[in-house]
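Hi support team,

I submitted a single chain yesterday and got back a structure, but I'm not sure I'm reading the token output correctly. Could someone confirm the output below corresponds to the sequence I sent? I've pasted both exactly as they appear in my results page.

Thanks,
R.
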Amino acid sequence: MSENKLMFTATKAADGTQQISVGIVDSLPNPVIVGEWQKMVPSAPREILDMAKQEQKDRHATNAAERAAKKTASIKDAASTIMGQIFGFIIVMTGLLGSFYLLFHGKTVEGLATFITPLAGLASLFIVYRHDLNAPSKSVATPSQPTSKSS
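Hi R., thanks for writing in. Yes, this is the structure output for that exact sequence:
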């Protein structure tokens, strides 16, 4: 049997009085509560079980959809990373080949500058990437307990 969670709601009327209500948040209510409902509506226990089954199906469907979306995003991120590395390699190799061409034809200053530029770009990207890996990740905190509502 799952553990019931309590939800507290506080409201304040215009005359200054406060009302605090406590409710149980769970798929299935306490059997005592179901018995009381059955006294009022004989079909209530069956309807409550049907609603709990439907809620469980909905939760499973939602969880499956979230997992599929995360997997798709992960695959797209990996493909994007690989494409970035390939294009970066092509750009750097073009710069290096250009610098070798200039050096071979006697343009030492231009060839050296063309050789150093892609290497400096690679080094800066490496440093920035390492810095991002070491930075603490930002995550969104989710409340573990229901919050009080004030009006």
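A quick pointer for reading it: Residues 43-134 form one domain. Let us know if anything else looks off.

Best,
Support desk
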